[in-house]
């Protein structure tokens, strides 16, 4: 057996051991998993209690367990807290201007007003995470983008099991260049090469309300092809 073949065998043997060990742990059954997915919801009102660093590190590590195209693990996360978080509020308020007209058509007046207040305060969430994709010629653009969003979903679920709430926001894209500058991303070599792209923001903290979850729209979402 060649050295390379032996290394491959050792790798797959170790992976089998990990998978069997996880199966024996049986820490979550099928019903619990699907209940977790159903229970997750977007939170827009938070307590001001700080989130411990070790909790944030676990959540980010969970995000980085996601699959990625060609295993490039091309996600980049920027975590904003404290005075820097407070400074971002003026940018959040500006991003509201780009989406308020669309939301006014879609939301009931009371929910529209609540959403507007959220953009002006970020619901008092103590932590902001900005998710970027490192794109390059080794992978197709949409595969790179999709890889990061899978990591973002892991973060959403990890927040829930940690007793936190979160809300994933596309609004920062309304002022993408300003957010890049605010975070100092523009100074990075990969950004200057045109390889770093902002995809979304995530606000998180300990929830201070329990909103109903929007009903899932199932009609016409899945097509079955058998012949």
Q: Roughly how much helix do the residues carry, as a percent range?
A: 40-55%
The portion of residues forming beta strands comes to 5-15%
| Assigned CATH architecture | 3-Layer(aba) Sandwich
The number of distinct structural domains comes to 1
CATH class term: Alpha Beta
Count of separate DSSP helical elements: 9
CATH superfamily: NADH Oxidase
Biggest sheet, strands in spatial order?
1-2-4-3
Alpha-carbon Rg, integer: 20 Å
Low-confidence stretches: none
Number of strands: 4
What is the arithmetic mean of pLDDT? 92
Kindly report how far apart the N and C termini lie: 45 Å
Largest sheet: 4 strands, antiparallel
- Tell me the CATH topology: NADH Oxidase
Shape: globular
Question: Which structural class is indicated by helix and strand composition?
Answer: alpha+beta
Order of helices and strands: HHHEHHHEHEHHE
Account of the protein in words:
This protein has a single domain, classed as NADH Oxidase, CATH 3.40.109. The radius of gyration is 20 Å and the shape is globular. Helix 3 (53-63) packs across helix 7 and helix 4 (82-96) runs antiparallel to helix 6. A 4-stranded antiparallel β-sheet has the order 1-2-4-3, with helices on both faces. The protein has 9 helices and 4 strands; from the N terminus they run H-H-H-E-H-H-H-E-H-E-H-H-E. The chain has helices spanning 3-25, 30-39, 53-63, 82-96, 100-106, 109-121, 141-161, 176-183, 189-192, and strands at 75-80, 127-134, 165-169, 196-205. The mean pLDDT is 92. Helices cover 49% and strands 13% of the residues. The longest helix has 23 residues, at 3-25.
């Amino acid at each position: 057996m060649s050295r390379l073949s032996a290394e491959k065998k050792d790798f797959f043997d170790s992976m089998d051991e990990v998978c069997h060990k996880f199966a024996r742990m049986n820490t979550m059954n099928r019903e619990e998993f699907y209940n977790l997915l159903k229970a997750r919801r977007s939170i827009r009102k938070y307590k001001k209690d700080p989130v411990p660093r070790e909790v944030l590190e676990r959540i980010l590590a969970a995000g980085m367990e996601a699959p990625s195209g060609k295993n490039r693990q091309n996600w980049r996360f920027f975590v904003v807290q404290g005075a820097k978080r407070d400074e971002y509020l003026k940018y959040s308020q500006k991003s509201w201007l780009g989406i308020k007209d669309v939301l006014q058509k879609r939301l009931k007046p009371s929910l529209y007003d609540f959403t507007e207040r959220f953009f002006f305060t970020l619901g008092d969430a103590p932590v902001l995470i900005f998710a970027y994709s490192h794109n390059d010629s080794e992978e197709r653009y949409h595969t790179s983008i999709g890889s990061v969003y899978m990591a973002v979903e892991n973060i959403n679920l990890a927040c829930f099991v940690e007793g936190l709430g979160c809300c994933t926001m596309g609004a920062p894209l309304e002022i993408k260049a300003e957010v890049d500058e605010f975070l100092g991303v523009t100074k990075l070599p990969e950004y200057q090469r045109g390889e770093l792209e902002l995809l979304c923001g995530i606000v998180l903290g300990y929830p201070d309300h329990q909103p109903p979850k929007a009903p899932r729209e199932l009609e016409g979402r899945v097509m079955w092809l058998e012949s």
